[in-house]
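Re: [ENG-882] Designed sequences occasionally contain unexpected residues at chain ends

Forwarding the minimal case from QA. Structure tokens:
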């Protein structure tokens, strides 16, 4: 029995894969692979062992009984119940893959760092004698500092062992390593001290007169190297491969430059670029994409900004057929999309925020396109979808990660009837606009993208659009808008309609229809309303009247002596929230001032109290979201997140201090 695995995960021995995955997800949140690689490795090994045990034929996890919330299409209850369980497992798998991708990123970053150091050492050992001493001095002063890792010292040792070093440079290396050796010994970094000693002894063996017994020293150095290699699990051939790889890098990049120039000139006309106009830089890809794909940034020479104008993407095994995606027409294309949707809906004030990224690890990036836009956005997007369908890495679109070849678009319009938040809260139900749904559904099919219609009260729409633009600081379409992560960029409490429309293949995969998926606000207490922050297919607890005013936690230190006043809210005990809620608090009902107040969240976990401040900001901020933990203020209301809570946990407290 793999009891050690379950002990590591902190749970009893079980064959319920769902419980195993939840335990693993909770632990990796606290042990990020980049910050705690050793701990993460142990947890991941235990997770794999536990799953292997759970897969043995003498038992398995039972399906959960789950139900659908009203407003969604329902079919055979058993079939939907199984689907619900599978989707929950998929959530955990997605989270697990995220951390595996982070580990891959961490490993890749270490490899790239080693690659750069190998290239630099190759330059140094072949440096002309006249420049060698100064270059080595610069290397130790600015690049190769005392805090380097043991494997980096090992690379320096190999560079010294395998090459002739000019006498002055050799003396400088030896003197530097003598100082470092003492430093490492005093800080008890004995592996680094041993490597520094090995470097010193290599220099002694190479420069006559620096040591009385060079032969002995050379043998000692070899012995140290052997011990270090065995301990670190690293072979000398790795260093050789890194240095040799540098030699072929220039040839490879030359081919990529030629391909980029050829494709850009074919697209925009001869003379658009020459090989002297652009630079190429290899990019890092993460997760599964890093195993099969290769990508290069294309930048213009002698420009103030080094932002990429294009990138080359393809399979590592097929370097002769990289595809070029550029952003030279990005603004024009995005404006054309907005104009077309506005014309179809008859709403010229509508604003579109389009994230065209897609594929594994988003290897197809937002704002970069393969096809040339000449006239007609519909024809352009059809051609673009065909090109993307053939692009390396886009095959992952249909595996449960991304469904729309041309990405996701959020379409904002003001409500024709509702102008204020107060009017929105008084609105019990909002009927679905069938015509609007049909138009957006046709857009999704024609554009080969997901289109979400977001209808806001008129005043909020005007405030948001004052600040929103096409830049990254503006409102950005949420990526991965598929169940169960269909998050609107604003809370359901702040919108009068949220329409999700997918291309036909997306609807088929998700088993959902195009339509309105808004959540109506619930009257929680006097002057307080709440709405879910996420789409949920579970039947929720009726929270009407379940929020209470309570005493402010003593730990906050609020007192009249300090001239402070406060009001605190908490859901009644025994309530279980599957999703977080957006609370909408009428400030006048509790004498909360317009400004100068604090919002504090107090949570309880295994009996321990934790507090965090949520500074309020204007609700018109385009890049702020209650779901992400931001507190917003507007029209005399405070909008703040109330986190999800299990039935056996103590409910959190929201406190406003003024």
């Amino acid at each position: 029995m793999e009891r050690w695995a379950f002990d590591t995960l902190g749970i009893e021995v079980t064959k319920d894969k769902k419980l195993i995955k939840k335990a693993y997800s909770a632990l990796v949140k606290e042990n990020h692979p980049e910050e705690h690689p050793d701990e993460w490795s142990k947890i991941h090994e235990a997770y794999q062992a536990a799953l292997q045990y759970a897969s043995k034929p003498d038992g398995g996890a039972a399906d959960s009984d789950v139900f659908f919330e009203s407003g969604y299409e329902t079919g055979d209850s058993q079939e939907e119940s199984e689907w619900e369980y599978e989707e929950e497992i998929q959530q955990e798998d997605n989270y697990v893959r995220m951390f595996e991708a982070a580990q891959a990123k961490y490993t890749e970053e270490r490899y790239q760092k080693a690659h750069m150091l190998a290239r630099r050492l190759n330059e140094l050992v072949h440096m002309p004698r006249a420049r060698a001493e100064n270059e080595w001095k610069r290397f130790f002063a600015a690049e190769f500092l005392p805090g380097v890792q043991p494997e980096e010292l090992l690379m320096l040792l190999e560079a010294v062992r395998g090459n002739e070093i000019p006498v002055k440079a050799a003396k400088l290396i030896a003197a530097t390593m003598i100082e470092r050796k003492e430093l490492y010994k005093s800080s008890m970094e004995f592996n680094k001290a041993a490597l520094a000693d090995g470097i010193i002894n290599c220099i002694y063996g190479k420069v006559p007169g620096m040591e009385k017994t060079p032969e002995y020293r050379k043998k000692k150095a070899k012995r140290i190297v052997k011990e270090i290699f065995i301990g670190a699990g690293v072979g000398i051939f790795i260093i050789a491969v890194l240095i040799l790889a540098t030699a072929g890098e220039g040839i490879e990049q030359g081919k990529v430059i030629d391909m980029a120039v050829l494709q850009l000139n074919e697209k925009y006309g001869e003379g658009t670029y020459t090989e002297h106009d652009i630079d190429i830089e290899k990019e890092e890809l993460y997760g599964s994409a890093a195993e099969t794909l290769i990508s290069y940034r294309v930048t213009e020479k002698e420009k103030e900004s080094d932002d990429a104008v294009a990138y080359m993407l393809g399979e590592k095994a097929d370097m002769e057929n990289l595809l070029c995606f550029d952003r030279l027409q990005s603004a024009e294309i995005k404006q054309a999309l907005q104009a077309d949707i506005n014309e179809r809906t008859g709403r010229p004030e509508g604003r579109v925020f389009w994230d065209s990224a897609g594929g594994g690890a988003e290897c197809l990036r937002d704002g970069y396109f393969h096809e040339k836009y000449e006239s007609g956005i519909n024809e352009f997007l059809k051609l673009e979808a065909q090109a993307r369908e053939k692009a390396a890495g886009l095959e992952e679109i249909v595996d449960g990660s991304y469904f729309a070849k041309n990405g996701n678009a959020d379409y904002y319009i003001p409500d024709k009837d509702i102008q204020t938040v107060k009017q929105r809260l008084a609105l019990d139900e909002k009927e679905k606009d069938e015509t609007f749904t049909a138009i957006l559904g046709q857009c999704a099919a024609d554009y080969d993208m997901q289109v979400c219609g977001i209808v806001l009260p008129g005043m909020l729409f005007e405030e948001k659009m004052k600040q929103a633009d096409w830049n990254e600081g503006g409102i950005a379409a949420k990526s991965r808008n598929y169940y169960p992560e269909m998050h609107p960029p604003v809370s359901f409490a702040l919108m009068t309609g949220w329409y999700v429309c997918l291309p036909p293949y997306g609807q088929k995969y998700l088993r959902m229809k195009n339509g309105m998926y808004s959540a109506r606000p619930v009257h929680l207490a006097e002057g307080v309303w709440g709405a879910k922050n996420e789409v949920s297919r579970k039947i929720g607890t009726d929270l009407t009247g379940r929020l209470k005013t309570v005493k402010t936690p003593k730990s906050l230190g609020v007192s009249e002596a300090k001239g402070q006043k406060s009001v605190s809210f908490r859901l009644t005990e025994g309530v279980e929230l599957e999703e977080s809620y957006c609370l909408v608090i009428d400030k006048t009902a509790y004498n909360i001032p317009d400004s100068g107040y604090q919002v504090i969240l107090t949570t309880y976990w295994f009996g321990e109290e934790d507090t965090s401040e949520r500074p309020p900001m204007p609700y018109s901020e385009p890049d702020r979201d209650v779901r992400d933990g931001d507190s917003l203020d507007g029209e005399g209301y405070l909008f703040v997140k109330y986190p999800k809570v299990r039935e056996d946990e103590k409910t959190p407290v929201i406190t406003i201090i003024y």
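QA comment: On inspection the terminal residues look reasonable. The radius of gyration is 30 Å. Proposing we downgrade this to a documentation issue.
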